[in-house]
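User: Could you walk me through two proteins back to back? I'd like the raw sequence and the structure tokens for each, with a short line separating them so I can tell where one ends and the next begins.

Assistant: Of course. Protein one, sequence then structure:
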Amino acid sequence: MASPAEVIPIGQRLSRNLDELIERRERLLTDYQDAAYAARYRALVDRVRKAEQERTGTVQLAEAVARYYAKLLAYKDEYEVARLHADPKFVESIRDQFEGGHRLVFHLAPPLLARIDPATGEPRKMRFGPWMLTAMVWLAKLKGLRGTALDPFGHTEERRTERALIGEYEQAVEKLIGTLTRENLSLAVDIASLPEEIRGYGHIKARNIVEARKKRDELFARWSGAPGTATARAA
């Protein structure tokens, strides 16, 4: 109890307000893809914020969209995994944690290389040596291919689903702000926060996506009959 309090680096603490929340995710998305990608994020969040303040005087929905829209946009694909590992801070953190000599080994299931386990039906992880870190440095430089016709990873079902989720979320948010009222604000926040339930990777994430989409449809069924929604639509 008498020991000094641990100092939390500024980059690791929680955002203090909505503006900081948005700015931090803009930087993340710029590093993830580019400035245009971050601008796409900012445009929707600003539109939500403006509509919400005009209709309810709050920022609850804007905060949810700012957080979870960024989560969907920054899905962890091969380029992002490579970028994070290629960051010099990653190697520095390993050196700080282990004294003396150490050897990096990567256990990955590349979609174009991994074999399917006949017992589970899921891709088997493969073992790669330290040379994989150099490969990741080069792969990270190719992030501009993400989502394009030249993206060798973008044609898998998992990547197509992740891109579809972004479009579905954008459509859902537009529907929410179109009929937002004080009465249905809490329900709107619940709908906008659904990406929180999409966790994991591969088959685990796929199951969570199915459940999240099901819950989204159920909540929107309630949205159609929520108090104030019909009034807002008529207006």
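----
Protein two, same layout:
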Amino acid sequence: MTTTDLLIDAVSHRVPAPHGQSPDRPPALAGAAGFQVRLASSAADVNAVQQLRRETFADRGAGNGEFAANAWASRRIEQYFDDRSDHLIVWHQGAAGGPLVAATARLLPPHANDAAPRGAGLAADQHFGVRPLERLLNSTVEVGRVCVHPDHRGGTALALLIGGIARYQHLTGYRYLLGCASLDLADGGQSAAEVWDLALASHLAPADRRCRPRDPIAIGGLARSPHPVVPSLLRNCLRMGGKVCGPPGYNAASGTADFLLLLDVHDRPTSRR
């Protein structure tokens, strides 16, 4: 079975039929030897995802007193969203041992979110006031907890993960993707300031889709580099037409600056209208 078949089969059994869209000819996944892309289908799969997530985000929380103080509450929140979401996994079969989770993302489709208002059932609502987006949320998949194994940060695993998210969105028929991009604050917020400048210049969401961070970060007076470095996941999202929904907010659980991003499938450069 190919990577394409695995993802199509999993989605067809886990989500409703696409809303007025044909499930044929979804976006193609580039082939890569030794990799499979599919949704988690067992508790063991989810445990493997959570293990990679712990390893990935532990470094951010290390030394962060707020993270340690909120660890118990954070675990409860994580489990709440994990129980309601699909978990997209890029598996890699190495030369020795069993398959390894090379990359993963948590996908919360609107049919799995029974909150009212719907925005209250999103992870993003913890850090941003998402009410301006409420009218879109019936057609929005929230993407969260994206992480890539340290041994697979050369590009292939991330490319397959992005392709898998695009296929999932096509097969479910939902129009929007919503999620947070996190930036390390070890540089004092300079990277966050540079990304905000980039958003203001080229990638800012329309005024009626902008959301205020619950805990804003002061970045106005920070120095900027003439050659800012944008993290690869964020860069790919912007290239695909993603919009930044406002200034960054502070995420106390991870000690990062978070940007809220919205991607409309109609804005993708290669999408068919």
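Residues 3-267 form a domain with the Aminopeptidase fold (CATH 3.40.630.30).

Let me know if you want the two compared in more detail.
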